[in-house]
Design a protein that fits this description.
Layout (H helix, E strand, L loop, with lengths): L4 H9 L9 H4 L13 H6 L28 H14 L1 H6 L5 H9 L1 H13 L20 H18 L4 H7 L9 E10 L10 E12 L4 E7 L12 H6 L17 E7 L12 H4 L2 E7 L8 E9 L9 E8 L1
Antiparallel strand pairs: 1-2, 2-3, 3-4, 4-5, 5-6, 6-7
Helix pairs in contact: 4-7, 7-9
Length: about 325
Amino acid sequence: MDDAVDILYKKKHFPQGGLPVNPSRAVGTAPAAQDKPKALKELIASFASLAIQPAPPAIEGTPQPPCHLAELPEEILVHILRDVAVADVADFVRLAQVCKRLAFLVTTEDQLWKQVALRSFSEMPYQFRREITWEPVEDDGDAEQRAADSVAETMLLLSIKYTSWARMFYLRPRIRFNGCYVSTVNYWSGGSSSAWNTGAFHLVTYYRYLRFYRSGAAISLLTTSEPRNVVHHLTAELLELHRDGAMAHLPSAIMQSALRGRWRLSSAADHLDGDVSASEAEGHLFIETEGVGRYHYLQNMMHLELQTAGKGTKNNKLAWRGFLS
């Protein structure tokens, strides 16, 4: 028996390392050199001179339906795109799928991404804005100054680390508000060592759910219930409804164990000694929540770090750095 038979088979039947080709389909299918796929930047740049095309007529030979969007001046169209970007960045990005002209504007119009980035990072609290019980933190009268400092720091990071507003929105650490973060923990638990059950082990799985709000409030829930039974109940309204074990007969009773809390991201203010740059100081998340059960006077403090999972996005994962109760 030859343990390298797979290598011998490939050398015999596929000497060039390729797959067999049907001869009837191989004639005339080799792409020419100019047909090679373009890089993304080249592809987007080729859309610069294109206009928005109306939809084709429903019946061949009939007049083409009007396209009011194609008749708008460029500055009016950009203004509409800016309003969409400020209202919902997901809808703004999806506009690039409509036609090549909108794909060019969405991708290359840096002033649009400036509005998106400034709005998004102004929503990130770099100081606690709420108490653990969700009451607003007492204002010391410097709210306007803090907002101005946040904008100034964003402008500074643009010049020293990011080459465009779009790259800043894509790469700079930020918390997502269109869902929740789920931590899955598995561990083995030893069974009872009786005469009928020796050496048995049980796989135990539990989940920690975290949801964040732009106001600086947060919800934390530790349970063995699976995400499909929890995620759609993870709201501030249901947390208050089930406070102190109320309404236990409802399907959302899982929220009886949910805890109120607050959150903030790290900034250069966390490194007063100046040994860390502004860009290196970002990316850490601090959460404080109520205590569990009857120990509401205690605190849970979580320290996490924004990391990346997968290739299609950035800063979409939280990694544990510490937990203190």
